[in-house]
Automatic annotation (TrEMBL), chains A, B:
Residues 35-102 form the HTH gntR-type domain. It holds the Pfam family FCD. It comes from Plasticicumulans lactativorans. The keyword Transcription applies. GO terms for molecular function: DNA binding; DNA-binding transcription factor activity. It comes from the Bacteria. This is GntR family transcriptional regulator. The keyword DNA-binding applies.
Length: 255, 255
DNA sequence: ATCAATAAACTTGTAAACAATTTTATATAT
DNA sequence: ATATATAAAATTGTTTACAAGTTTATTGAT
């Protein structure tokens, strides 16, 4: 075995927006089988996007990713390819990868798609909403409310995403769940771009109201609440000013 | 420039299930810019799946793909990675790629997802259903009927897919259209596996009825027809016998 | 003849080297 | 000073060669 790769490892990586969890600390390789390196990177980048540490417009050069994740370029490209396919990064030929910046038009489509998917799933979710499940959902919503209270915006955002995912999972359709997961991760980029600094108001409260309707078996009510909720979140976005945010960033990082 | 690659080109490829369109004959590179090789392969494989020339269980070895498409292994892997991400091929570590075989459980989820997506899109589609558009849809349905008449099953299947795609496109939501495209391509694999040899009856007729409702502006009727249509297509599947088809194939190609 | 162990052939996985492109920096002329 | 052209650096794209794994074929024993 050669010295492996090319003199990497042992670097600062102090304030990197990408957090690397050492391989052996995760449960995935409990059996001893190491998880593929490209998946490690994929999950780390996805998590960073979900927590808004990686913001739209940020560059992901191969060399930097190789260092951060201690991977070969091939594995890095594999991960970037997957992220590109999920529309989380833009892969420009010969010019590298950047975190994607959904356009306003794309944004409208995504929220419309979410409305369709999440309302369509609701009847099945209500049918599966046992008291135990509802308790779990309420717990998430309460955590979310606390995060909002303390001004921890990205934590609140993450919990909101988890809430919507758990509701969707109740419907028991893996294909639909995966589709929604893709829409939700792109929603994180949208909020990072167009989300109002003060955050969308009333989200945790509406989540709690939704759980109430679900537990009561009120299908029509739950559907209406979900639809209205998504519309309100979309309406809180600001497309006028913040579109510039990306441009500014591009300018600054165009070193 | 070196002699390029490694002694490929000039082979039989007579009855290959994958049809390769020579690069320069397509419109994509009208400006002179050659289309990336991996995309050529991706599109060829997708087309072969849509026309049921590539059937579930078939192996796609890298070497064979390199020869057929005159590509390097890297481009082939890129195409396979994309196909795997779209669930059209299974990528087994160290064991290569095979055309995917959706399970019965997956099948139920996919048809359920189609029902959701296509009925949710219908109101918008009806709103966009001008007489010209309806004429186009009817033309597709009539071609389809003719194909069924002449026993050209795969042609009929392709036209059916095109019909559903065109209807969805009317809604004008690219995100949803892409999602449906993924579901429809997987439906082709499902039909190849579990579709009754005689084909699902009455499909072109129901397509025509749907266009009538759409042109009349009958949203509720169109939604109901679409939902019922998808249910009927799913019910025509046969999960008992044909699951064996894959196994048989595996046995024969296990050379 | 059937089965197990071994060896060969084949296939995928990965790294290193090289080529091509893009970006940044420098020099020169207007 | 601004702008243009040239050169250097950095980054991505691709091939080649080799390593590791899997499948198939062969050999030998029961």
């Amino acid at each position: 075995m050669s010295e492996n790769r090319s003199g990497r490892r042992g670097r600062g990586k102090a304030h990197s927006p990408i957090e690397v969890v050492e391989a052996d600390t995760l449960a995935a390789d409990a059996a001893g089988a190491a998880r593929p390196g490209d998946q490690v990177m994929y999950e780390a980048v996805l998590a960073a996007v979900m927590e808004s540490r990686l913001r739209p417009g940020m560059r992901l050069t191969e060399a930097a990713c190789c260092e951060i994740f201690d991977l070969g370029r091939l594995a890095v490209r594999k991960a970037l390819l997957r992220l590109a396919h999920e529309k989380l990064v833009d892969l420009r030929p010969n010019r590298g990868a950047v975190v994607a910046s959904p356009t306003p038009a794309e944004t409208r489509e995504i929220y419309f798609a979410r409305r369709m998917v999440e309302t369509a799933l609701m009847p099945l979710a209500v049918a599966a909403a046992t008291p135990a499940v509802c308790a779990e959902l309420r717990a998430i919503a309460h955590e979310e409310a606390a995060a909002v209270e303390q001004g921890e915006r990205s934590a609140a955002l993450m919990l909101s995403g988890r809430f919507h995912m758990r509701v969707a999972e109740l419907a028991g359709n893996g294909v639909m769940t995966e589709i929604l997961a893709g829409l939700l991760s792109r929603t994180r980029l949208i909020v990072a771009l167009y989300g109002p600094p003060e955050g969308s108001p009333g989200v945790p409260e509406r989540h709690l109201a939704l759980v109430d309707a679900m537990e009561a078996g009120d299908v029509a009510g739950a559907v209406a609440l979900m639809e209205r909720h998504i519309i309100l979140v979309e309406q809180a976005l600001r497309f006028d000013v913040p579109a510039r945010e990306t441009d500014l960033f591009d300018i600054f990082t165009r070193r």
